[in-house]
């Protein structure tokens, strides 16, 4: 396959489709005269069970648009021996319609490392697809929109990390996985929001450099005696929440349980009842069973969690991640048809990036509710 596009640092590459990749037959998914997929009785039957699950978060009028794509993707997935991994921020029609595994960054990394599928479709963002490729170099790893980035990953380069190491000789580097493979290759170990404190403490050091999320770094610093040297990257979604937002939720919904992602600012985190990774939030709701919850994180997460807990009332604050939202059913289908865009990681960084990820996977999650 020929490389047709590369990201800034020239590490991950999009590959051109082979000609025969377009010739995959789809029996369930009948086409209308203009080439669009039709909502046939067969498609309705094949997707009825999925719709029953999501009916209170997807209006009935939208289903004829989603269902033919879902049926086609699920059929093609079997033909390709493909597996679809979806992050908790994906929309419900992707999350419940086509995903084989759903979870947070850590869960997706763990699943990507253990699957025996030939093709892995990452419904998430590019740093997640790079994680999967680094851990499964012999598999085809697809990211349906190559431009699905992340403001945290874009905030730091490998040269920045080398400079930090030169400024603080001998101090180990912990890299939040929301970074590209060349950056992680410079780090001693990766972490996610589900295990950041445990990872930092696993090093047995008095001081660590923590990149690239300054707010997560501050959150970790508040949970440990290890001194944290920060990099001031931010998540463009979580930094928009303010302490005032939380106070207004509490005023309008007395008794509401407020749960936030640690990518929010310290001022926001001081106002909330629980802080956790996206999967940590789900485990917490499962354990606490609050009547009413507000999730201070990306929009789709509330829809997805509401499907799992129909008895819990969800207040839905709406901050969308524009990168996560680049993944759609039509581009997942096209990606499976064409086997593009396929993620590649530059050979010179693969070993370093794998070492820092494997070291993190050996540490695992912080706890059952992380
Ligand atoms: P999690 O690791 O908690 O799933 O978060 C990933 C992410 O991108 C949050 O913005
Ligand atoms: Fe990156 Fe924030 Fe989007 Fe997560 S929500 S992928 S941290 S920009």
Briefly summarize what is shown.
By secondary structure, the protein is α/β, with parallel strands linked by helices. The protein has helices spanning 41-54, 63-79, 92-95, 105-114, 126-135, 158-167, 181-184, 196-202, 214-221, 243-252, 266-269, 278-288, 299-308, 329-338, 347-363, and strands at 3-6, 13-15, 82-87, 101-103, 119-123, 140-142, 173-176, 189-191, 207-211, 227-230, 257-260, 274-275, 292-296, 313-315.
Walkthrough of the structure:
By secondary structure, this protein is an alpha/beta fold. 39% of the residues lie in helices and 15% in strands. The protein has 15 helices and 14 strands. The protein has helices at residues 41-54, 63-79, 92-95, 105-114, 126-135, 158-167, 181-184, 196-202, 214-221, 243-252, 266-269, 278-288, 299-308, 329-338, 347-363; strands at 3-6, 13-15, 82-87, 101-103, 119-123, 140-142, 173-176, 189-191, 207-211, 227-230, 257-260, 274-275, 292-296, 313-315. A four-stranded parallel sheet has the order 4-3-5-6, with helices on both faces. The chain has a four-stranded parallel sheet with strand order 8-7-9-10, with helices on both faces. A four-stranded parallel sheet has the order 12-11-13-14, with helices on both faces. Strand 5 (119-123), helix 5 (126-135) and strand 6 (140-142) form a beta-alpha-beta unit. It is globular. It starts with a strand and ends in a 7-residue tail after the last helix. Bound molecules: 1,3-dihydroxyacetonephosphate and iron/sulfur cluster (SF4). The site of 1,3-dihydroxyacetonephosphate has 11 residues, from loops.
């Amino acid at each position: 396959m020929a490389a047709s596009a590369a990201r800034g640092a020239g590490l991950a590459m999009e590959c051109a489709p082979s000609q025969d990749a377009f010739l995959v037959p789809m029996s369930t998914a009948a086409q209308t005269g203009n080439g669009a997929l039709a909502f046939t009785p067969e498609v309705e039957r094949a997707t009825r069970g999925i719709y029953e699950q999501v009916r209170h978060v997807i209006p009935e009028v939208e289903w004829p648009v989603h269902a033919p794509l879902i049926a086609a993707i699920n059929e093609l997935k079997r033909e390709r021996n493909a597996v679809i991994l979806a992050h908790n921020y994906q929309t419900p029609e992707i999350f419940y319609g086509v995903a084989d595994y759903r979870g947070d960054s850590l869960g997706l990394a763990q699943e990507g490392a253990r699957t025996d599928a030939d093709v892995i479709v990452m419904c998430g963002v590019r740093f997640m697809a790079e994680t999967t490729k680094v851990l499964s170099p012999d598999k085809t790893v697809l990211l349906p929109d190559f431009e699905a980035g992340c403001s945290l990953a874009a905030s730091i380069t490998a040269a920045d990390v080398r400079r930090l190491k030169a400024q603080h000789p001998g101090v180990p580097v912990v890299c939040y996985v929301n970074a590209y493979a060349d950056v992680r290759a410079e780090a001693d170990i990766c972490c996610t929001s589900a295990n950041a404190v445990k990872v930092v403490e696993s090093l047995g050091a008095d001081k660590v450099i923590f990149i690239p999320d300054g707010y997560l770094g501050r959150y970790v610093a508040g949970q440990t005696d290890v001194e944290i040297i920060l990099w001031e990257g931010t998540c463009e979604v979580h930094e928009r929440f303010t302490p005032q937002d939380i106070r207004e939720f509490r005023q309008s919904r007395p008794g509401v349980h407020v749960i936030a992602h640690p990518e929010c600012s310290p001022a926001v985190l001081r106002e909330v009842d629980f802080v956790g990774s996206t999967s940590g939030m789900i485990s917490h709701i499962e354990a606490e069973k609050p009547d009413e919850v507000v999730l201070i994180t990306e929009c789709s997460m509330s829809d997805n969690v509401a499907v799992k807990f129909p008895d819990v009332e969800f207040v839905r604050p709406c901050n969308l991640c524009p990168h996560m939202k680049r993944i759609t059913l039509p581009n997942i289908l096209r990606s499976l048809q064409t086997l593009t865009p396929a993620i590649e990681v530059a050979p010179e960084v693969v070993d370093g990036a794998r070492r820092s990820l494997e070291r993190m996977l050996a540490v695992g999650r912080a706890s059952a509710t992380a």
